[in-house]
Amino acid sequence: MSRARSRAAVGLSVAALAAGATTGAGPAAAQPKAAPAAAADCSAAYQIEQQLSSGTTWRMCWRYDNKAGLVLENISYQPKGEAAPIKVLNSARLGQVHVPYDDGKAEYDDLTGQPFAQSLMNLAPGECPGGTIRTVKVPDVWTSDNPNVKGLCTTTRSRGHAYRMQGNEANKVYQAQGKDLLVYAVNQVGWYEYITEWRFQDDGTVTMNVGATGSLSYEDYDAGDGRGWPIGKGAKAYATSHSHNVFWRLDFGLDGSSKNGVEQYDSAVTAPARGQQAPTTKTTRTKVTKELAADAKTYRWWRVVSATGKNKDGHARSYEIVPGASTKYPGRSFTKHDLYFTQYNNCELFASNNPGSCGGKSVDKWVNGQSLTHPVVWMNVGFHHIARDEDQQPMPVHWQGFSIAPRDVTAMNPLTPAELGWQNGHWEPRG
Ligand SMILES: [Cu+2]
Fold first, then answer.
1. CA dihedral of residues 35, 39, 42, 48 (deg, nearest 10)
2. Quick one: signal sequence residues (predicted)?
3. Which of 151, 222, 296, 353 has its CA 20 to 30 A from that of 316?
4. Which residues have a beta carbon within 5 Å of ligand 1, which is an ion?
């Protein structure tokens, strides 16, 4: 039986999307929109542009892939002090959702082995508060299904303090409440529903999360000792434990160029030597010039560095990779590391069970010694799900994800108020 339906036309209903720009939709959009910047490389229906009330504008294009689902492209960040958008990413998307069950009876690659993308869910108006729900034409849906799904939410949200500082005058407090652009969609896989959420903060940070909700798998209430948790009355209904290993695939294009460097930093702490008052800490940089399977560790971090772009202090622009909490699953070769840096290859799209044959079916095989001049970052964040009584019903969303944070993209805090704009470097107090 064939469920695939090829669709030559990918154009959306322009009428339905004419009000596509999210500016003006949310509580953070109180200020007038700035003059349009250089045209994005997509038509209006596929553009997302949001100026947040602090003055920061995020711009990107979206499209919908028949396996990866939501794909964001040509993502740029323009804080209020910058004359032009600063490109951050060529492309950002999920790279796989790998779900092995603890009893060894089942293992899924949800993006490439299940109709993840085809099961995009219609959003109720109430689940995109203050925002805009766009219609997505879903490729390869069952012929009986409507391919037009109200499935993409763009909205804004407050995140609490962006900063706070007591001024010299008694009554002066510098404080700002941070605002974020949120972009999300929900895909159903079996009994689960996955919320794929992208959060673009007005301070330049991007946080990507997947939230699993829906319902525990109905077929898996028969776990043995040590492989599940009883969630019915008494010692009954042992829900089988399992892992959700989520991969993201980020193709950086800092300052509009795909030629980016990668650096790893490690710090070593040494006990006080004789005569020293305190332990000392030394941080060292290692340039990552070849493909690498990397592991998170205390005092270790990475950044992707622009080869050309500099901020107004003359420092190379970069984005730091900020891993989230993860339970690394050692069961498969491709889940053994937290992070993979691979040289860009348009065949290498999914961290496991990749449809194309690119010298191996999984990301670990693609780390094979190539020089790293156009790095693609694969982040693997694992969550070991041992069910609890509270998982019924519906199952509360459990989130996993990570962030990328600007490091020297701007010469100062992009949200610095004008009165403090002179306090850059080792400034002298005035007055
Ligand atoms: Cu789960």
1. -30
2. 1-30
3. 296
4. 385
